Amino acid sequence: MSDSTTFGSGGRENPILLQGFAWDLAADSSHWRFLADNAALIADSGVTTIWLPPAYKGQAGVNDVGYGVYDTYDLGEFDQKGTVPTKYGTKDEYVAAVAALRAAGMTVLADIVLNHRMGADGAEQVRAIEVDAADRRKPIAEPTTITAWTRFDFPGRGGAYSDFTWDHTCFLGTDWDEQSRRNSVWLFEGKEWNEDVTDELGNFDYLMGADVDLNNPRVSDELIRWGRWYLEATGVDGVRLDALKHMSREFYRRWLPALREATGRDVPAVGEFWSRDAAELCTYLGEDPIMCMFDTPLHYRLYHASFKDHFDLSKIFERTLVEADPDHAVTFVENHDTQPGQSLQSFVEPGFKPAAYALILLRQEGTPCVFWGDLFGTPETGDISACTELPLLMRLRRSLAYGPQHDVFNAADLVGFTREGDDDHPGSGIAVVLSTALAATKRLYVGARHAGERWICAVGGHGAITIGGDGSAEFPVSETGLSVYVPATARPIIDRGMTRLVRVR
After folding, report:
1. How far is CA 330 from the centre of its chain?
2. What residues have CB less than 8 Å from 109, skipping those under 6 apart?
3. What is the sign of the dihedral through the CA atoms of 445, 450, 452 and 457?
4. What's the CA gap between 109 and 107, in Å, rounded?
5. What is the pLDDT of residue 501?
6. Percent of the chain with pLDDT over 70
7. What is the secondary structure of 195-253 as a DSSP string?
8. Taking CA atoms, which of 111, 245, 279, 325 is between 20 and 30 Å from 425?
9. Other CB atoms closer than 10 Å to residue 440's CB: what's the count?
10. What average pLDDT does the chain have?
11. In what order do the strands lie in the sheet with 465-466?
12. Beta strands 107-112 and 49-52: pairing type?
């Protein structure tokens, strides 16, 4: 982390963010212990920052992935929702995991979900207006009284850490009327959806559960108090912010600076704003960004490229956040929402996944994020296999992907790029070729410094080549494949990176 407006390495070169979970991890409350036990191994793979799943109690108790937020002060410490530990473990285990990960040299990000609350302790009579689910700006009925689950007393916690309780005045709306026992979308009378959200469905402020009123001063003040408590109680360095497109943009422009001022720390932040439109992400960031954002447009381009039908590889980075604002772009191939069976399923085809990771790991622009499921697979469901090339690509990024970059993105089905390397990293330099059609060769320039050198194929299974006197060579790639070449002097780095990380419990 270089400052409070960019997300990066904490001074380290070629940072890698690891999403430290997948959706379907076993609900056995062991994940915090596993991360603590394997912190050194994870750091040795090249990970500089790790994003941990939501640590607080969800409405589904031990089975809640963490996004069905019930009590943000209960980090697996109180008997609530049928359990003391969360899906991932107890508060003590969480704090110990954070400490172990930081001791291994990694920055730790907490997943922050402040858009909604679920699993209320009681219902209240509330005047509300039913709105069109397809256009939340349009009322479809006269104001009426509904019974809404909006009372959060947290009896299991008994006022520990905060005596703040939530009632209907803390929310803008809901999607369930207990009285009529039906789903719809209701806006509470006297409230208005925030205007500084995405205009999908007319106004996409409402997402799920009881929609938090972020402009209510009582709520805003409490969330700032909670954020400061959370940073101090857990030791995390920064935050991953959930569901930005559904939340008032101005809220986090108050909340993050308040936490930074209160703690005297940078508090690095990366936000999830799920949009295919890079311009929308740039507008959210504004001229004075206070966070980075996940490059969702690039994810969709990688997803469509993975099917190979008429996709123009030469335009893979066009209209992406990493093209528009590389300093604030966190690039990714997959995450917990895109994996099979999830609400935003857009799973990159396994055959293209090594190429997709090469495109985010080996280039100089953006901060790449590796998905837990791609690194370890998902044995709980069996629907994701580990990308066997991924540990090696991470190793190549850490050790060899330095120096000036040269792009040759001049053909729809055959592209390549190189990094020249530098004097500070012995053996550095890299050449990457991708094909979505026939086997071919691509002439690439790797730098005059490498003239006459022997380069070997680290990924792709091709033979060695010799770099010409002008610093260029013809680099082969197989049909619909990926080839990565490095100086022969880097052989020990390749051999070390070929040992795939294995999850052991």
Report:
1. 8
2. 17, 49, 50, 51, 52, 236, 237, 238, 239, 240, 268, 270
3. negative
4. 7
5. 55
6. 96
7. SSS--TTS-----SSEEE-TT-HHHHHHHHHHHHHHHHHH---EEEE--GGGS-HHHHH
8. 325
9. 17
10. 94
11. 405-408, 414-419, 430-435, 482-487, 454-459, 465-466
12. parallel
Lowest-confidence segment of 160-164, 291-295, 343-347 by average pLDDT: 343-347
Q: How far apart are CA 78 and CA 419, in angstroms?
A: 52
| Confidence class for position 393, pLDDT limits 50, 70, 90 | very high
Element (H, E) at 42: helix 39-44
pTM: 0.95
Separation CA 192–CA 177 (nearest Å): 19
With vertex at residue 171, the alpha carbon angle to CA 167 and CA 177, rounded to the nearest 5 degrees, is: 80
- 327 counts as catalytic: no
8 Å CB contact between 305 and 284: no
| Average pLDDT rounded to a whole number, residues 148-155 | 98
Choose, from 64, 177, 211, 272, the residue flagged as catalytic.
Answer: 272
Q: Give one DSSP letter per residue of 161-194, joined into a string.
A: S----B-GGGEEEEEEETTTTEEEEEEETT----
Catalytic residue from among 93, 177, 211, 242: 242
**Which residue type, as a one-letter code, is found at position 294?**
F
